[in-house]
Amino acid sequence: MSSYLVTGGAGFIGSHLSEELVRRGHRVRVVDSLVTGKRHNLDHISGVEFIEGDLAEMPVAEKAVAGMDYVLHQAAIPSVPRSVNDPIRSHRANLDATINVLVAARDAKVKRLVFAGSSSEYGNTPTLPKREDMPANPLSPYALQKNAAVVYCQLFTRLYGFETVTIRYFNVFGPRQDPGSPYSGVISLFATALLVGKPPTIYGDGEQTRDFTYVANVVDGVLRACEAPKAAGEIINVATGTRISLNELLKVMNRIVGTNLPAIYSETRAGDVKDSQADITKAKTLLGYTPIVSFEDGLKMTLEWCRSEIATAASR
Ligand code: UD1
Fold first, then answer.
1. What is the CATH number of the domain that holds 257?
2. pLDDT at 307 over 90
3. Does residue 202 lie in a domain region?
4. N or C: where does the chain have the smaller number of CB atoms within 10 Å of the terminal CB?
5. Could you tell me if the CB of 171 is within 6 A of ligand 1?
6. Same domain, 50 and 97
7. In this structure, are 187 and 150 located in the same domain?
8. Whose CA is nearest to atom 26 of ligand 1?
9. Count of domains observed in the chain
């Protein structure tokens, strides 16, 4: 049994990591500011220690890392448009908090920190799929903050010998992804729209593509990264290695739900990346990672979850 701190553990991806760690018999502590995370995301998991606090405050970071073997640093304000609208708030959550967690974890002699990187760091690369050795080209404050945090992680490994690994996520989706804000991930927004019979909105022409990754796949990648012997100091894409356009995504989701709702098209969002698809060779080599849940199976499970959330809300 090891002890794990999951920062942002009351959020979407963090709660899935916490659940899997508990299932594997580990000790789990969560720290979350509850700005985007929800306390009830952890209700079904027993034995998780919970600290409410803002990691941009150093004492919170110090208290959170004390006695931990591993830190899974997931806490963030995870939205491109939100960072465009409020760059200072997202800088504080995505970067000020990260430097505190890095320093505190290094000083507390944590064995390894795994950081949640983002495919947005690549921006619009001239070629696909995107490989980890391609230069970053951030198109939004969010992408820039994530990239600066990754460079900090690598620097901490080189400079202080503190082991860090960045797992670069590509449009993760699944149950517990909050559809309740215009900044929510597109799959959660499409799912809710289709299930309540409203047309979803597509920003731009819908021909932008994404490597949508079911959350169980990234949980597997992150937990592998804690142990993988050659991963320290590395950035590793964890995704499916495929891509689908938003127009195609909507078709697939309409088919699964049994609807035929057309999209309402609106202006392209500022900071939006055109195409995104991961090269996952490095994850295969360094982590022995391969996606365990297919895109379509993941969509079905996500839609099932949304359906039950809508039914629960209606019965209140
Ligand atoms: C970006 C990152 C991703 C990161 C995430 C955090 C890229 C390629 N990906 O996701 O790694 O984890 O931010 O939030 O930069 N859209 C619609 N209708 C909607 C909502 C969104 O058409 O109702 C469009 C967006 O304009 C975008 C696509 O769907 O083109 C995906 O949007 P979203 O789910 O918000 O994620 P990204 O911004 O791609």
1. 3.90.25.10
2. yes
3. yes
4. C
5. yes
6. yes
7. no
8. 203
9. 2
| Model pLDDT, residue 96 | 98
The CATH number of the domain holding residue 127 is 3.40.50.720
Domain, as residue range, for 44: 3-172+212-238
Both 196 and 92 in one domain: the answer is: no
**Distance of CA 69 from the midpoint of ligand 1 (Å):** 33
Is 289 assigned a catalytic role?
no
Stated pTM of the model:
0.98
Residue nearest to ligand 1 atom 36, measured at CA: 185
Look at residue 299 in the predicted model and tell me its pLDDT: 98
Same domain, 11 and 30: yes
Catalytic choice (4, 70, 122, 142): 142
Q: Distance from the CA of 186 to the center of ligand 1, in angstroms?
A: 6
Mean of pLDDT over the chain: 97
Q: Is the CB of 246 under 6 A from ligand 1?
A: yes
pLDDT tier, 80 (very low <50, low <70, confident <90, very high otherwise)? very high
Complete DSSP assignment for 216-276: HHHHHHHHHHHH-TT-TT-EEEES-S--EEHHHHHHHHHHHHT--PPPEEEPPPTT--SB-
Residues 101 and 232 both lie in one domain: yes
Instruction: Answer whether residue 232 is part of any domain.
Output: yes
Instruction: Identify whether residues 45 and 165 lie together within a single domain.
Output: yes
pLDDT at 63: 98
Question: pLDDT of 85-104, one tens digit each?
Answer: 999 999 999 999 999 999 99
The Å distance, Cα 44 to ligand 1 centre, comes to 28
Which of 168, 138, 119, 173 minimizes the C-alpha distance to 282? 168
C-beta 170 within 6 A of ligand 1 = yes
Question: Cα angle vertex 245, ends 181, 275, to 5°?
Answer: 90
Distance (Å) from CA 107 to ligand 1 centroid: 36
**CB crowding 25-48: b at 16 or more within 10 Å, else e:** ebbbbbbbbeebbbeebbeebeeb
Atom of ligand 1 nearest to the CA of 200: 23
Cβ neighbors of 79 (< 8 A, separation 6 or more) are: 90, 142, 183
